[in-house]
């Protein structure tokens, strides 16, 4: 019975030690989790602030276009704001398209610079020639 009691005590101590080690690992990760949560919250707050500033900037631009202060709930203001947003989207798309074209041009120039001319055969230098066409002026039949 004494051996059984010792064995049970060892098991309980082992379980307690494992649980304590598990808690220590989780506490160590807790700091990382808190940092991650704080980063996410900060990022969300930053994005919300940027969106708010962008909206305020648009409102001010629309007010300057209209030439007077107008209530943001007014239909004319909403129409002007929508028009301004559409213009901004078009400008953004144009900028993206231009950037995409620039990248394409850069890749093509890099690719053309990398193509070695020594590997070409002599027939590659000559343009493809079509067979002579009928020069007599009468249609071919």
The helix-and-strand class reads mainly alpha
Query: What is the number of helical segments per DSSP (H or I, 4+ residues)?
Result: 3
H-E string: HHH
For the terminal residues, how far apart are their CA atoms?
Answer: 117 Å
- Ranges where pLDDT stays below 50 over 5 or more residues in a row are none
| Rough outline | elongated
- What's the alpha carbon Rg, rounded to whole Å? 37 Å
Q: Which sheet architecture does the biggest sheet show?
A: none
Kindly state the percentage of residues in helix. Answer: over 70%
Q: What value does the average pLDDT take?
A: 83
Percentage of β-strand residues: under 5%
Number of strands: 0
Molecular structure report:
With 141 residues, the protein is mainly alpha-helical. 77% of the residues lie in helices and 0% in strands. It is built from three helices and no strands. Helix 1 packs across helix 2 (75-114). The longest helix has 65 residues, at 2-66. The protein is elongated, with a radius of gyration of 37 Å. The mean pLDDT is 83.
């Amino acid at each position: 019975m004494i051996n059984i009691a010792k064995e049970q005590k060892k098991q309980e101590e082992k379980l307690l030690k494992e649980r304590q080690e598990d808690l220590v690992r989780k506490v160590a990760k807790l700091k990382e989790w808190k940092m991650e949560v704080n980063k996410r919250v900060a990022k969300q707050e930053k994005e919300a602030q940027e969106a708010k500033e962008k909206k305020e900037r648009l409102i001010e631009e629309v007010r300057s276009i209209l030439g007077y202060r107008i209530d943001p709930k007014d239909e004319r203001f909403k129409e002007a704001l929508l028009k301004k947003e559409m213009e901004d989207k078009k400008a953004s798309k144009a900028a993206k398209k231009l950037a995409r074209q620039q990248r394409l041009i850069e890749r093509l120039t890099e690719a053309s610079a990398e193509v070695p001319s020594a590997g070409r055969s002599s027939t590659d230098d000559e343009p493809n020639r079509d067979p002579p066409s009928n020069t007599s002026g009468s249609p071919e039949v």
